[in-house]
Design brief:
Helices cover 24% and strands 40% of the residues. The protein is α+β, with helices and mostly antiparallel strands. The chain is elongated and about 90 Å long.
Length: 329
């Protein structure tokens, strides 16, 4: 009997151990299946995220939206980098087109007919003076066409012979006097192209250096480079401070775009390129740069259509889409 009980006990223990091992094996299998399932879901989620990111990298705009946001396209191609030096300057009256009007005889001013800012023609009467000799009135007249830029007489006064009663200037052209520092003197010469700007009030103007002073001013330690600038609209007023960008040499490059085409996305320089799917931000490598343009070494090829102006709008749309996708998770 004892032997039978012993055998039964051994069988029961073996059955229990087998059951425990089977349960553990089942638990391990279930755990592995759960981990595989979880990993599969993670991969699927990651794949979905990559898919969403791929979709976010494309921006689509209608023709109406492009017109509304003033987005301008262009074709990538070669251009010229202009090496420049930037110097300060000032607009001045054209010294060859100015007249100082001095009364011929000493006398009392009886009438003043013109004031500062008035346009006059040659022969126009500026004032009437009564001569001290014989008390005979005579006319003080304009000696050239132009604008009255100074007046030093009033009724009842006696003009002094060494002081002009009127100054008339032809403002259809003006001088731009640029200050050339000593370190730039060797790079500046007559005939060089110069771009003149004074801010955003009106468009830049271009001209060529017509004169370079042979001496350096002992006080400012600068020489003067002069440009004669057309001024038919009279936007360039004498006394106005300006900036001059003097082109010292030119370099032709295979791909050149305006700086307005370059955007910064996720720490990279990009240019938005037009594709069949929409506009994509193409990372680019930048080369030489001048005041308004930049050379593109890689990331853009000749003939590609890119966003020349208005890329900031596409960048904003891209960032908005990215934020929306991030919140959806």
């Amino acid at each position: 009997m004892n032997r039978i009980l012993t055998v039964l006990t051994i069988l029961l223990l073996g059955s229990s151990v087998t059951g425990v091992l089977a349960q553990e094996e089942h638990d391990d299998d279930h755990k592995q299946m759960t981990e595989q399932d979880t990993h599969g879901h993670a991969e699927a989620d990651e794949h979905d995220e990559h898919g969403e990111e791929h979709e976010i990298d494309v921006v689509n705009l209608t023709d109406a939206e492009m017109a509304e946001f003033d987005i301008v396209l262009d074709t990538a191609g070669p251009g010229v980098i202009r090496n420049e030096i930037v110097v300060p300057g000032e607009i001045a009256v054209n010294g060859n087109r100015i007249a100082h009007i001095v009364p011929r005889f000493v006398g009392v001013v009886k009438k003043v007919l013109k004031s500062i800012g008035d346009q006059v023609r040659t022969g126009d009467v500026l004032a009437v003076v009564e001569s001290n000799e014989g008390l005979t009135p005579y006319n003080v007249t304009a000696l050239m066409d132009g604008t009255v830029i100074d007046r030093q007489v009033n009724v009842g006064e006696v003009p002094q012979g060494d002081v002009p009663a009127f100054i008339i200037a032809d403002l259809d052209t003006v001088w731009v006097n640029l200050s050339i520092y000593q370190m730039h003197l060797s790079s500046v010469r007559v005939g060089q192209l110069v771009t003149i700007s004074s801010g955003r009030e009106f468009a830049d103007a271009t001209g060529r250096i017509s004169y370079l002073s042979p001496i350096v001013d002992e006080h400012t330690r600068t020489a003067t480079a002069r440009i004669i600038l057309p001024n038919f609209k009279q936007n360039w007023r004498p006394g106005l401070f300006v900036e001059g960008r003097i082109v010292t040499n030119r370099e032709k490059v295979p791909l050149l775009v305006p700086k307005s085409a370059l955007q910064r996305v996720e720490g990279n320089d990009v240019i938005f390129v037009k594709t069949a799917d929409g506009f994509i931000p193409s990372p680019v490598q930048v080369g030489s740069v001048d005041y308004s343009s930049v050379e593109i070494i890689s990331g853009l090829t000749e003939g590609q259509i890119y966003v020349r102006k208005g890329g900031f709008t596409l960048k904003a749309e891209l960032e908005t889409s990215s934020l929306s996708a991030g919140h959806s998770h």
